[in-house]
Design a protein that fits this description.
The protein is of the alpha+beta class. The chain has three helices and three strands.
Length: about 90
């Protein structure tokens, strides 16, 4: 079974709150007070996901570039840490 979580704004914008009766209790999870929790399964999940706008090529490219920059930064920090560890071991050995 597929499932996802959506925050209250996503639930509102998708329109699922007005169509909740079209889904089973297994598809839209509610708490003990019958309030929708945001956990969605199968058809309800796809209903909300279909309302999410597709990111443009520019937006997707920006995400990839940012993640690559983060990776490079983290790798640089990791390398610096390894370098300092080697220097420290050398100092302690001599």
């Amino acid at each position: 079974m597929h499932s996802a979580f959506a925050n209250s704004k996503a639930l509102e914008l998708s329109g699922i709150l007005n169509k909740a009766d079209d889904f089973t209790s297994e598809e839209i999870v509610r708490d003990n007070n019958n309030i929708i929790t945001g956990e969605l399964k199968e058809r309800a999940m796809y209903f909300v996901m279909d309302k999410i706008p597709v990111a443009s090529l520019t937006e997707r490219t920006e995400v990839v570039v940012k993640q690559m920059q983060n990776f490079i930064r983290l790798e640089s920090l990791r390398y610096q840490t390894l370098l300092w560890e080697r220097i420290w071991r050398f100092i302690k050995a001599h």
